[in-house]
Amino acid sequence: MNTISRSDCELLSDYIAGNNSALEILYKRYERKVYTYILLMVRKPHLAEDLLQETFIKAIKSVKEGKYSETNRFGSWLMRIAHNLVIDQFRQNKQYREVSNNDFPMDIFSTPRFSETTVEQRMVYERVLFEVRALIDFLPDDQREVVMLRFYGDLSFKEIAEITNVSINTALGRMRYALINLRKMVKEKNLNLEFEMAW
Q1: Are 12 and 74 within 8 A, CB to CB?
Q2: Residues 83, 88, 93, 95: what is their CA dihedral angle, to the nearest 10 degrees?
Q3: How far apart are CA 166 and CA 108, in angstroms?
Q4: What is the pLDDT, as a whole number, of residue 172?
């Protein structure tokens, strides 16, 4: 059977049975998503790499110790681990420091993980991503968190509610207000963005 087409649960079972290549496939399957979410939260590529590694190390340790039991939800479980590590990082630094796009010492989109797209696509994606991300920084903490988890973490509202310890209605309400605020900011700043978020 083609290992790549196997489900997360099947790959985890293969890994527990001693097949290390199964873990490699899982890592490649979720690396970009987890890394992008972490990077957009911490805004430092080297720190994002460290937290990405720590996320997978914690996940592997839990799997080996038999602590992982969520069927078919490996991706959202990984995002929860990454989210908790980011929160720990913020607590460790005492506060969330707002940063500008100029704080990036390198163009993250020229790294191999983003090389599947054309140069033009990367440039458009980069512009929209950073302009929207800059606006997200102006949102209240609870709204910013939901937006990051939904759009950059690609989580469902049920998963967001679980991670942030609120009801689904509260998570939906925070997203609603976040979108209202973001649209208002786009209008005020006269930004030319296709700002239609399907949620």
Answers
A1: yes
A2: 60
A3: 33
A4: 94
Could you give the angle at which helices 74-92 and 8-16 cross, rounded to 10 degrees? 80
CA-wise closest residue to 22 among 39, 37, 35, 4: 4
Tokens 């990405």 correspond to what residue?
52
Segment 45-64 shows an average pLDDT of: 92
How many whole angstroms separate alpha carbon 115 and alpha carbon 168?
Answer: 36
Determine the length of the chain.
Answer: 199
Note whether 1-97 and 98-199 share their fold.
no
Q: What integer pLDDT is reported at residue 96 of this predicted model?
A: 44
Q: Does domain 98-199 have CATH number 1.10.10.10?
A: yes
Decide: 186 and 193 in contact? Cβ < 8 Å.
Answer: yes
The predicted pLDDT at position 40 comes to 79
For the chain, domain boundaries: 1-97, 98-199
CATH 2.70.70.10 holds for 1-97: no
Instruction: Give me the pLDDT at residue 111, please.
Output: 41
Calculate the alpha carbon distances from 64 to 24, 96, 130 in Å.
Answer: 15, 33, 38
